[in-house]
Specification:
alpha/beta; Leucine-rich repeat, LRR (right-handed beta-alpha superhelix); two-stranded parallel ribbon; 11% strand; elongated; disordered N terminus; binds 2-acetamido-2-deoxy-beta-D-glucopyranose; LRR_TM_domain-containing; transmembrane helix; LRR_dom_sf
């Protein structure tokens, strides 16, 4: 058995010998074996084509052989691609993730494949937006058709940061748009985005919100000032009247006079 090194995890000597006889290894690095839920065929230069299509998979298999060149994960139940899901696969150049239920791709999902991957199929999923961080420096030809693209400011800001093969982005067809009145539905995002500014309304809304907040603060300060002046005036008048009610006291009378002129 070639892929089984007598590693520490292969336990004691006798057990190792026994396992070698059975042609089974319990060590954790099955790096040249096919994952349980897939079958493998030979690719070019002793690489592997790993077929895991239609296996009801809810997660990317973790024990993929490091010689994998093509990986078919289409028609499964994947919801997301976690960060570093394809680590340690330096020969992988074709990856099919179509017909899953992908709603998102985590930051760093494909970053380990930047040097090798040439073709990525993400078609027929439930993706609404693209996070440039998921792709890293990936330059692969990427099929993005048949998703739920929400054409909005976020997508507009993400597009220029994507290094993907430029023809990939032509397949982003808007299933809905935000703001809706821009009428991007059913059109390729790349076409509409050259004429329309999806971020304009957001900027305008922010400006209005700022203005309202500032006006609110201003009103509060003014009301407080008015209240403060009124309140003190009443106090002063009350004080004055009290002093006037004691006219026979010389000192008090003078004080009242000064207060009167002061007011
Ligand atoms: C795969 O891993 C084995 C050892 O686990 C190593 O000898 C081999 O060079 C690796 N192959 C590639 C293509 O990285
Ligand atoms: C992208 O995927 C769709 C649907 O799966 C398919 O019809 C289309 O031919 C693909 N486009 C490319 C360029 O491979
Ligand atoms: C587009 O969005 C609507 C809901 O807004 C949904 O019913 C429909 O399936 C979506 N189309 C695609 C191709 O995802």
């Amino acid at each position: 058995m070639m892929g089984c090194h007598p590693m520490a995890s292969c336990l004691s000597l006798t057990l190792t010998l026994f396992l070698y006889q059975l042609d089974v290894c319990v060590s954790d690095s099955h790096h040249e074996e096919c994952p349980e839920s897939c079958f493998c065929t030979e690719g070019i230069n002793s690489g592997l084509v790993v077929h895991c299509s239609s296996m009801h998979l809810t997660a990317v298999p973790r024990d993929l052989p490091n010689t994998t060149q093509h990986l078919y994960l289409d028609n499964n139940l994947l919801l997301t691609i976690p960060s570093d899901a394809f680590k340690g696969l330096p020969l992988l150049f074709k990856l099919d993730l179509s017909h899953n239920r992908l709603v998102g791709l985590e930051h760093g999902a494909f970053r380990d494949l930047a040097d090798s991957l040439r073709s990525l199929d993400l078609s027929s999923n439930l993706l609404e937006t693209l996070d440039p961080g998921a792709f890293g420096d990936l330059r692969a030809q990427t099929n993005l058709s048949q998703n739920r693209w929400l054409c909005d400011c976020r997508l507009q800001l993400a597009m220029p940061q994507l290094l993907l093969d430029p023809s990939s982005l032509a397949e982003v067809m808007c299933n809905s748009s935000e703001p809706q009145e821009l009428g991007a539905q059913g059109l390729p995002f790349i076409l509409v985005a050259t004429d329309l500014d999806f971020c304009a309304t957001i900027r305008r809304t922010t400006d209005v919100a700022m203005l309202i907040t500032m006006f609110g603060w201003f009103t509060m300060v003014i009301s407080y000032l008015v209240y403060y002046i009124r309140h003190n005036q009443e106090d002063a008048i009350r004080h004055l009247e009290y002093l006037k009610s004691l006219p026979n006291r010389q000192g008090r009378y003078e004080e009242a006079l000064t207060l009167n002129t002061w007011l």
